[in-house]
Amino acid sequence: MNMQTRNDPFILMAGVYLTVGLLAAIGTLTVEAGLLEPLPRLRWVTVHFVTIGGLTQAVFGALPAFVAARSTRRRSSAGRSRWLQWVSVNAGYPLLLVGMTRGSTITAGAGAVLVLGALLSLLVTVFRLPSSTVAAGSARYFRTAPWFLVVGILAALGMLFGVHGPGGYFGSLEAHVHANVWGFLALVVAGVLLTVLPELLGTDRRFPRARAVTYWGLTIGAAGLVVGPWTARHELTIGGLVIYVVGTGALLASVVGTYRHSDRQQDSRIALVLGAYFWLLVPVPIAPFVLLFPTAVPAAAIERAAINGLVFGWLLQLAMAFLPVVAVAARRDPAAFVDAIAAAAETAPQPSWWQVGSANAGMLLLWLTAVPLADGVASLLTLGGYLLLAAAWAAFVVDLWTALAGERSVRRRLEETPFG
């Protein structure tokens, strides 16, 4: 069997951008501490380091392997088109960042178009691949998800060039965020969890019928969350949110049920998953008040906390749980990718409990900044929140690069080294 011994280039770039994102988060710390003057669009740049720079790159690398794992048919799409995708997304993303920070619409637009071209090419690759038995139930998640990113990029282009729907600029902004995060990344994450957890925990997946509820709940719900803000129809947004929560509940039932049916290993990874989905769902009961009574609640502070929760509370914790494992498994022959997950989990660094606590405590402090009673200490809460997140993020970056290097966890090596 042909064994792959090199790192996937997309996942390698995910490591680069997540490292740079950590530096941007540290930059935010210095700004909050008053050591640096505020930098233009630093918060949004940091968010995009995690989303497009880190997680989207990882999705580009792993998605074809998830769709066609264990397939016996020869795959011919992993050659030139994959490298063209890599060049396109890694040329487009820096242009997008430069355009955002310098306020250059043309530069940012050119970057978005290059990323869009890479995405359309990825869609062709994924649809041409034969679905394997192991991924047969999850393949539709992986094939539907990129279409939401197409919509998200089109909404971003609309914001850049002033083309909006009835919801105006802020409707386009919400549609962009919802399409990219609640649609694209959430569907990929759901498909990965349903595929990986049984392999990782060594047990059968519980509640298999919940998979259809999860798929349709997330897909229809995310569609409502995209169309509602763009068209300024609150009933679509709230209806989409309700359906989305049903789909997420079905996913969490599968995750918890599968974990309880196992020998209860991988505890810290499951804790990161549950913590991640907690921060995803925190805005749900608040969202109708922000939509219907924006002057009665601190809407701007809540929106800022909600986006932080989506990116740093949800996506970053999921990356901490699984990206080092995916990095190790991706070094194998793609046909053995899913089979390699359990072994990769034994080799890859295990997230520590202090890392779980630090990430969630940091996110709690950032959410507290949206509470009106905390106005007087909002800067202090933000500083503490980013400090705790940066600590957990730094440990994750060390573990990710350790996994990419094919070594054991640096922390484990230090623990095993005798002193004195």
Would you give an account of this structure?
It contains 15 helices and no strands. The longest helix has 34 residues, at 168-201. The chain is globular. 75% of the residues lie in helices and 0% in strands. The protein is an all-alpha fold and 420 residues long. The chain has one domain (9-410): Cytochrome c oxidase-like, subunit I domain (Cytochrome C Oxidase, Chain A, Up-down Bundle). Helix 6 crosses helix 12 and helix 9 packs antiparallel against helix 11 (299-329). The chain has helices spanning 9-32, 42-68, 80-102, 105-128, 139-161, 168-201, 210-231, 234-260, 267-281, 287-292, 299-329, 341-347, 353-368, 378-404, 410-416. InterPro entries: Cyt_c_oxase-like_su1_sf (IPR036927).
Q: What characteristics describe this protein?
A:
420 residues; mainly alpha; Cytochrome C Oxidase, Chain A; 15 helices; globular; transmembrane; transmembrane helix; Cyt_c_oxase-like_su1_sf; membrane; Cbb3-type cytochrome c oxidase subunit I
Write the layout of secondary structure elements.
Layout: H1 9-32, H2 42-68, H3 80-102, H4 105-128, H5 139-161, H6 168-201, H7 210-231, H8 234-260, H9 267-281, H10 287-292, H11 299-329, H12 341-347, H13 353-368, H14 378-404, H15 410-416
Helix pairs in contact: 1-2, 1-14, 2-3, 2-4, 2-6, 2-11, 3-4, 4-5, 5-6, 6-7, 6-8, 6-11, 6-12, 7-8, 8-9, 9-11, 9-13, 11-12, 11-13, 11-14, 13-14
